[in-house]
Amino acid sequence: MTDDYARRSYGEIEVGFGKKPGIVVVDFMLAFTDPQYPLGGAPLVMRAFENTIKLLEVARRYGVPVATCNTAYMNEREMPYWKITAVRDTFRHDHPSAPIDPRVYDPAYDLAVVKKGPSIFFNTGVADYFTKERVDTVIVTGCNTSGCIRASSLDSFSYRYRTIIPEDCVGDIEEQPHKDNLRDLGRRYADVSNLETVLAQIENWHQQNTH
């Protein structure tokens, strides 16, 4: 079977790792990581959650900027027109599922924002923070791949960041949308990588900047 996208040059050019990385952690809130909640505990999301914890441990040790977020609203009146009942019912400031999971969040280190749309960059100040930190490469982690990861990756691309998505640090409710969206992002906007490769890139960046 021929790949018409490849024939038309999609995905031919690698984005690559730039001069300074930053990491965005999208929506690892208790709503997604605690199985007691309607959206919680999806296997691919939990795999991504565990791998992101490993990534952040190294990143914080080496001084890599980290921005993390949850999605929460005052009430339904403030919300966009979500089509997901569980989001409308639980993504509220006063709901116990709204906070970022403490296992992935260091309040003394991470920039934490509350986002109102799918992208961590939309009206949040994350891009301003990365500008001050001279970040040129954004590593995207979190959930869900077909929703907020896709939106955050598109905004990262639009802000002219080199965008890298470690496949095993993002997750979704179902495997097929996870694969489909990573395939499409990888054809156009981002390098789809993995935890091991990204850790090696951060290690190499750290060594180059400590001599």
Question: How would you summarize the topology of this molecule?
Answer:
Blueprint: H1 4-7, E1 21-26, H2 30-33, H3 43-61, E2 66-71, H4 85-90, E3 111-115, H5 126-132, E4 137-143, H6 145-158, E5 162-166, E6 170-171, H7 175-188, E7 191-193, H8 195-208
Parallel strand pairs: 1-2, 1-4, 2-3, 4-5, 4-6, 5-7
Helix pairs in contact: 3-8, 6-7
Characterize the structure shown:
The protein has 211 residues and is of the alpha/beta class. It has a single domain (19-205), classed as Isochorismatase-like (Rossmann fold, 3-Layer(aba) Sandwich), CATH 3.40.50. The chain has eight helices and seven strands, in the order H-E-H-H-E-H-E-H-E-H-E-E-H-E-H. Strands 1, 2, 3, 4, 5, 6 and 7 form a seven-stranded parallel sheet that branches. Helix 4 (85-90) links the parallel strand 2 and strand 3 (111-115). Helix 3 packs parallel to helix 8 and helix 6 runs parallel beside helix 7. The protein is globular and about 45 Å long.
Please count the helical segments.
Answer: 8
Tell me how many strands there are: 7
The domain tally reads: 1
Q: Give the topology string: H per helix, E per strand.
A: HEHHEHEHEHEEHEH
Decide which structural class fits the backbone: alpha/beta
Low-confidence segments: none
Estimate the global geometry from the Cα principal axes.
Answer: globular
**What CATH architecture do you see?**
3-Layer(aba) Sandwich
Largest sheet: 7 strands, parallel
Strand content: 15-25%
CATH C-level label: Alpha Beta
